[in-house]
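Working notes for the structural subgroup meeting. M.R. asked for a predicted model of this chain before we commit to crystallization trials. I am recording the input and output together here so anyone reviewing the notebook later can reproduce the run.

Input as submitted:
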Amino acid sequence: MDQDLSRLRRFALTVGVILIVYIASGIELPNKPTVIVFGTPLDVTKPKFFELGLLLISLYATLRYWYHSWIQNPSPSRIRRRLRRGEFGLVRFVKDENELTNMIRRYLPGMEQKFTIRTSTRAEASGLFQVCKVEGKELLQIPWKTRLWSVIDNLDYTAPLWINGIGIILFLLTKAFAAP
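Returned structure, recorded in token form:
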């Protein structure tokens, strides 16, 4: 996971957990809370906008992480699916096959010795790429430990999406069934 995506992930997880804790604990701001910024007391006249702002930040973090992790970059589940079909696809040019083996080790641990990697170089306008084909007789026979690890990895990768989803749904349900 690249540096920018991990920062987006941390931000989305933090905002989602804050929203869930805020809603689940039933925190209510007083009518006129005072916030001290740089030694200056500020009176908040509309504290309900704090809740709305928290919801909008959570929605923004969710959409941004979804775009960058699922649309712009291939997700780990998509890469595993490609590996099981025997095609890794177009990857940036790598110097040796050890990097590709490390990628297989990352997404299907314990199975890197069962694959044969065939590459062919192709020049694109944006740089040098390799088309990688992965061959192996045991592509569909993945051990249960590797499958379990894959499920846990997929849950971890999608955690910012479903944690924020839970927070947004809790927020909407509490506002829908709140006493007037």
